[in-house]
Amino acid sequence: MTEKVEVRVHGVAGARAETILDHPVVVRVAGDRRAGFYRIRPGLEGRKDVPGITVEAYRWGDLTGGAPLLKLLTLLLLPFMLSNVAVWMRPAGPSRHGVLTAMCRLLAGTLTAAYALSMVSVAMDLVGYQCAARTYCTSDRPLLSWLGSLPHGVRLVLLAALPFLAIRLIWWIGSRRARNVGDIHQPTADARAAEGLADPLFWDDDHLAGRLRWIHFAIATAIIDAGLVAGTMSPSPDNAALLLLAACGLLLLSCTALLIWGRLHHAATRRLVRALRLASIALTVLTLSYALVPRVAPPPRGNMPGIDGATAALATSQGLLLLGLAALTVRYRRRTRTETPPILLGMGTPALAAAAVIVAAAYSATFVYRAADLLDRGAIPNPVRAPLPGAPPLAPPAADWWAATAAVVGLLIAAAAMASSLLLTRRRRRRDAERIVRRDFPQVPPEARSRLVTVELAIARSQATEVFGPTLIALLLISSVGLGTIVLDLIGTGPTQLAAELSNDKSQAARVAAYLTDAGIYLIGAVVVGLVVFSVTVYRSPDKRGTLAALWDLGTFWPRTIHPFAPPSYGKRAVPELARRVTALTRRTGVVISGHSHGSVLAAAAVLRLPPEALGHVALLTHGCPLQRLYARVCPAYLGEHVLRDLGDRLDWRWRNLWRDTDSVGGPVFGSSHRPDAAVAVDIRIRDPQNLVPEPDDTVPPPIEGHQPYHNQKAFRDALRDLAAQLG
Length: 728
Prior knowledge:
- The chain is α/β, with parallel strands linked by helices and 728 residues long.
- Helices cover 58% and strands 6% of the residues.
- The chain has helices spanning 17-21, 68-73, 78-86, 99-131, 135-138, 142-148, 152-181, 206-232, 239-261, 267-292, 307-335, 348-375, 398-424, 426-440, 449-462, 469-481, 486-490, 495-502, 506-540, 545-555, 571-586, 598-607, 612-615, 627-634, 636-639, 641-650, 714-726, and strands spanning 4-9, 26-31, 36-40, 53-59, 591-596, 618-623, 655-659, 683-685.
- The protein has an eight-stranded mixed beta sheet, sandwiched between helices.
- Helix 8 (206-232) runs antiparallel to helix 9 (239-261).
C-alpha cells in the first residue's frame, strides 16, 4: 500500500527544513534553494510519528530574503507596499476592478509623485537653485563649490539626473527582488474560471506591474521636467516654457486617465502605455534642450518657483483621495453585511492607505529637512530664529513644515489610541481569561496558584490582537486632518506664521510653534533612522528577526496590482508551486497539506487552485491558523467566510483546524453560529498548557506553547491520522 504524504508548510519569518522535519539530515526532492520541498534522507527516517505517512516540508522563507544591502534598500518601498496591500482589505461587495481600485491606484500615483518631488526639492531646489548660487553655502565644500561656477541651466540639468536616478533605484530594487522570488508559469487562458484566489490568473501580475511601472515613471518624469522648466525659466515665462509646462500637465492627466480606466490587462492598454513612454522620453529631451539654452539666471528668492504650490497640491489630492476612500468604503460596508465583525470597523483600505501617506510624508520630510540642515551647516532657519550672518535662507516647502508639526501630534495620538485600547479592554480580556482557565482547570492545587495567574495573563495578552484597530483609525483621521492646512499651504503660511497671527503675544507664540516644528522634524527623522537601525540589527540577529520578517512577509503576500514599485509578491511563486507539487503527488497517493500560521493561508490558497481530479485525494490540516481571526476580518473579499465555506466544500470537509486560547495569531476557522453542519468537526481546541503542575516524570510544569507549531503534540498526530484515513 502506498504511503500517504503530509506536505508541511511553515509560517512567516522562515524556518530551516531540518526544524520543520525535526531531523538533522534532509534532502531536497523538488524546487530550488529559494523555495523547495524536503524530506528526510532515505534510510534515516527511523520510526514514523504516524505510521503510513511520509512527511515532506515546503520551505518558502527564502523567497522574501536577499542580500543585506538589498533588504535595507527595500525599506524605501515601505509606503508603496502599504498602498498595494490596502486594496486587498476592501469590503466584499465591490469588484476587484471597480472605483475603489481606481482610487487606490490614484493614491499610489501621488506617492510616486511625492517621492520624485522630494528628490527635486533637495537636488534641484536646495542644492542647485538656493545653495549653489550663494558663496556661503558652497565655500569650503569641494563637492558643491564647482557647481557655483556653472551656468544656471547646466547646473540644474546635471542635478536633474539625481531624481531620475532615484526613480531608477526603486525600479531596480523591485526588479531585483522579483528575480530573487522567481516565478511559476501561470495559465495563459483569457477566460477566468473563478473569482478571487481561485482565479487561475490571480497571481499573474507581471504584465499589470510592467504597465503600471511605465505609468508611474511617466508621473515622475512629468514632475522632474516641470521642476527643471520652472527652475530655469525667466521671471516672465516665455512661450516655450509655458508650452513645456502644459505638456507636463497633459502627461500627468494622461497618466491619471490610464490609472482611472483600470483595464490595464487589455492589449489596447499596451499601445497606450508605449505611446506614454515615448511621450515621456520626448518631453524630457525637449525640457533638457530648453534648460541648456543660455539665459539670464533668475535671482534666487526662497524656493524654486512652483515647489510650494506643487507640494500643497499633492497634499490636497492625497487628503481628498483618503476622504473619498473612506466614504466609498462606508458605502460598501453598508451594502455587504458579514457575520463576523470586521477589524478596523471595515475601514482597512483607507486606514492602510493613510498609513502609506504618513510613512511617505515622514520619508520626504526627513530627507528634505536633513538636507537643508546639512546645507545650513546645522541650523535650520525659521521666522523666529534667523540664520547665521551671510547664511543662505534655505526654505523647505511650507507643506513640509506642517508635516513636521503634525508628526508630534500624530505619534502622540496614535500612542494614546493604542494605550487606551489596551487599558479599556484589559478588564474584559482578564475576565474572559479567568473563565477559560476555570473551565480548563476546575481544581487547582495551592502550589499552582502562581502558574494559574501566568496562564491567565498569557490568554489575556493573546486577545490583544483585535484591540489595535483604533490605532489605525487614528492614523486615518490624522492624515485626513491635513485637509485643514490646504489653504495655508497654498498661500505659503507655515505653523509659526499662523501661531503669530492667532496669538496676542506674537513672538512667544511663534517661538513655541517653532520649537514644536523643530521637535517634529527631529522626531520623524529619529523614527526613520530608528527604523533603519532596527532593521539592520534584526537581520543580523536571528533571534530578533521574527517580528519584522513576519510583518514584511504579510505585506508582500499579495500581487502588485496598485503600486508597481512595491516589493514583489512571493505568493506568485509559492502558491502555484505548492499546488503543482500537491497535484503531482495525488497522482500516486493521498496528500494531507498541513500549514502552520501563515503557511495555512498558503495551503488554503493552493487548495483553491487544485484541479478537480486532485481535490478528491487531498485533505487540509491547519494549526495556529489566522484565516478567520485575521484574514476573514481584514480581507473579507478574498478570504472571507464565503471563501472558507467554499474551501470546505471543495475538500468535502476533510479539514481539521487546531487552535489554542494562548495563541495570539491563530484561532477557530468557523464561528460558533451560522456555520455549516459539516464545519462543526473542523475546529479542534487544544488546552494550553496541558497541566498546571509537573507531570509525574517531569520536574517543571508543561510549557505554554502559544503560537508555536503544533506538530509535536498528540492532537496533531490524531488529526493527521484521521484525515489520512478519510483519503482511503
